[in-house]
């Protein structure tokens, strides 16, 4: 590949058409470059693809369904994606977390309504998340940029840091009821790791604060609508996308002024080859991936018969029991052991987007946290968790589709070992990923950048990793505005 400059409109190439690759491409196109995106799969979207899996007319998301940070993305909010078909839909209750005994904590977009529903834990919830929700727009803008930048709102960021730097176990002590502690613990478990270490409260605190500001929406017509809208915007800006093209080397690419790789670090190292500086190669090949996910997509007649009423109206349900049970399961998974009662994230997207159902048959998707590269079948353990909080679930299942960690990686090479969050959220990688560098998107090869979820700010259909990397590329070309 020859990197060149001096043309009236330079060429740019993006490898990978997930939300980060597409966001990067749109940013580059708007910066004045002629952009081509190459995607290995036959369809775009990466982690935001959708389709029928079993029953005709029942629509499932292949990976992510609920998009708290997508709706709150500082970059996506600047784009008129609605003009290209993206419409957010919200359920009545954003999240429910059932505990044994038929009770459940419920998270609403309103802090006040959530606090009221939590009863004895309401005042503590309001004190903690009221100010953070009010600052959510400032916080998302700050934490979804590289952390080496100078914060524009240091006071608000410091207030967030007072909570975020703590272990999730310590923050959970602020809540006295099983429902309140479980509600926080289930969101904290999005970290995919032990909840006893410093900084492990950060993910839960940020998602809850953002959720109170933006809600937990789904995209009408499936998560693929996010990719479709970004692709349509890119084409309108003069870009193009080629699917079914697997890039194994930079030598396959046409001459370009800049190249962005929406790839996992090890895959990026393979594509860049001998051009990659040894120190960067070591960082990329030693990059630590997170535990895996085992996915179960259920076509359910009449929906899940939850004991707790809040679960029947919630777009997302977390299954794991009390905080201590969640913490134990997450610790076991992180250590490579499959727990008997895994933590589950359940999506009932049809409650916000009725068009995903076929009559009374509804799509219900669940992820279980499992060890990295887990080779077993988690179906029985997952269904047992459903039955624990919704007896009679099995009798309502019309069809079930299981997706193993290996299946996830085959469908999307970035999901290494079933890792759906782009890398382990250990303290160093939470702040410096994929390597220690002032500009984490630079690969050390002039004109070549990494823009996947393995770069800041990490997982989510927010496009910020791609946008941030594209901004870095444009600065190097003297085109950043």
Automatic annotation (TrEMBL):
<dbReference type="Pfam" id="PF13450">
    <property type="entry name" value="NAD_binding_8"/>
</dbReference>
<dbReference type="InterPro" id="IPR036188">
    <property type="entry name" value="FAD/NAD-bd_sf"/>
</dbReference>
<protein>
    <submittedName>
        <fullName>NAD(P)/FAD-dependent oxidoreductase</fullName>
    </submittedName>
</protein>
């Amino acid at each position: 590949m020859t990197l060149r400059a001096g043309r009236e409109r330079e060429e740019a190439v993006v490898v990978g058409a997930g939300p980060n690759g597409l966001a990067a491409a749109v940013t580059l196109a708007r910066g004045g470059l002629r952009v081509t995106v190459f995607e290995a799969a036959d369809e775009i979207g990466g982690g935001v693809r959708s389709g029928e899996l079993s029953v005709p007319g029942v629509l499932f998301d292949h990976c992510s369904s609920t998009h708290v940070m997508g709706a709150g993305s500082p970059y996506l909010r600047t784009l008129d994606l609605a003009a290209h078909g993206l419409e957010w839909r919200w359920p009545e209750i954003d999240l429910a977390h059932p505990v044994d005994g038929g009770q459940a904590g419920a998270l609403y977009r309103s802090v006040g309504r959530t606090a009221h529903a939590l009863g004895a834990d309401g005042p503590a919830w309001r004190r903690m998340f009221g100010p953070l929700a009010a600052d959510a727009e400032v916080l998302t803008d700050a934490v979804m940029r590289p952390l080496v930048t100078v914060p524009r709102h240091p006071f608000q960021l410091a207030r967030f840091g007072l909570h975020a730097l703590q272990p999730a176990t310590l923050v959970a002590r602020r809540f006295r009821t099983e429902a309140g502690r479980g509600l926080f613990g289930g969101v904290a478990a999005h970290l995919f790791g032990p909840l006893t270490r410093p900084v492990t409260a950060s993910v839960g605190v940020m998602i809850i604060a953002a959720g109170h500001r933006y809600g937990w929406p789904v995209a009408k017509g499936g998560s693929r609508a996010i990719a479709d809208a970004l692709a349509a915007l890119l084409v309108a800006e003069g870009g193009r996308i080629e699917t079914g093209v697997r890039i194994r080397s930079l030598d396959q690419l046409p001459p370009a002024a800049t190249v962005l790789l929406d790839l996992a670090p090890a895959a990026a190292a393979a594509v860049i080859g001998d051009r990659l500086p040894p120190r960067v190669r070591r960082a990329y090949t030693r990059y630590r991936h997170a535990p895996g996910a085992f996915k179960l997509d259920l076509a359910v007649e009449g929906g899940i018969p939850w004991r707790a009423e809040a679960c029947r109206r919630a777009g997302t349900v977390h299954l794991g029991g009390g905080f201590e049970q969640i913490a134990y399961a997450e610790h076991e998974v992180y250590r490579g052991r499959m727990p008997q009662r895994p933590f589950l994230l359940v999506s009932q997207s049809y409650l916000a987007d009725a068009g995903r159902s076929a009559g009374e048959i509804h799509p219900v998707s669940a992820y279980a946290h499992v060890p990295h590269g887990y080779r077993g079948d988690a179906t029985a353990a997952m269904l047992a968790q459903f039955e624990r909080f919704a007896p009679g679930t099995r009798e309502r299942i019309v069809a079930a589709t299981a997706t193993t960690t290996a299946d996830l990686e085959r469908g999307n090479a970035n999901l290494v070992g079933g890792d759906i969050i782009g890398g382990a959220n250990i303290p160093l990688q939470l702040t410096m990923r994929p390597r220690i560098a002032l500009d984490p998107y630079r690969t050390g090869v002039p004109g070549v950048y990494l823009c996947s979820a393995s770069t800041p700010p990490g997982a989510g259909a927010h496009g910020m990793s791609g946008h941030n990397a594209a901004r870095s590329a444009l600065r190097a070309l003297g085109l950043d505005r």
